[in-house]
């Protein structure tokens, strides 16, 4: 059977053959680069803090701003994927958001920096396009794995950013620039990369395996492009909101940790800026395998126990994540902190993968809208967590303890939801090929 214009049933990560695999690789690469724009400033915040004279409360506002705009952006982008198509949506997002990334260095005040951080945060909506695009390119048997691998490798950009941006900053210092100029110049690099990739994405991907929305004949157009009221359908389903909470408790805490980790290690354990960046980057590097592992396990659990099994797996991972974060907050030495960080990171990132192994099955006529709402939940979680780190009455360690308790409560809610009332069943296990067939 000719599968060139149909969703793939296998994921061969070493192949770029066909529009499905080419899109798979380009979408995770685009998401990877988006992290450089989105969180490129995070490992440089100690320098920015000194340059702009920022207080703890102002830094807290900046952390909130970096994820707040993404809440609305993810919902809007999810709807655009359903109607306009992921190819045009991603291209526009990359091109538009490259502008504030490149020009953030023009600001010289807290207020200006806050506004730019808010604008840059829109690029976090890139995740929704990534998950939508892999959802339509792969068969239901493998979609959980494909979503998790693409999302995980893209999220890896958060870890690489924490390691690479201090090096880019150091390169400008070595070239003779002062710190207050070097951080501004460093942000031009990811901005240019985003702009270039916008053109790459437009010319080398398709909306669906069969072609772009506006090129397909009426009889074969993607059904989501023709269905009206997809957002309403998504919002009426309680499972959407359960996943909204779950994603706030896993991905929301991930991007909060990406924002605060380097500063936390720098201030609490007296590390250098470079070491703090490496430790924070290690957290992000676990996306190389942990999120994918969550998707693979979820697909296998779904085969044996159905969507109810996937839901219980998600609840268990969230509970373990909450416990791990609380233990991390109590770490008295750097070694214990790093070990506990790696433990809770494993559960957190696996929970990310499991969440989006469920999302495509909530309503297949509204994949973009469901994905957008659930993705927005991640940023709502990050905004709420940001208020804890903004507070002058509690320490960063206390904030992590409160977060751990909140995640445990979300885990209990998710455990009570019946995800088995799905419109699609899975009949075969996922397959992750790591060699050419």
From TrEMBL:
Topology with respect to the bilayer: Multi-pass membrane protein
SUPFAM superfamilies noted in UniProt: MFS general substrate transporter (SSF103473)
GO biological process per UniProt: nitrate assimilation
Residues in Major facilitator superfamily (MFS) profile domain copies: 23-423
Membrane-spanning residues: 21-39, 59-77, 89-108, 114-132, 153-177, 183-204, 241-266, 272-290, 311-329, 335-359, 366-387, 399-419
InterPro entries, per the entry: MFS (IPR011701), MFS_dom (IPR020846), MFS_trans_sf (IPR036259), NO3_transporter (IPR044772)
Protein name: MFS transporter, NNP family, nitrate/nitrite transporter
Source organism of this protein record: Dyadobacter koreensis
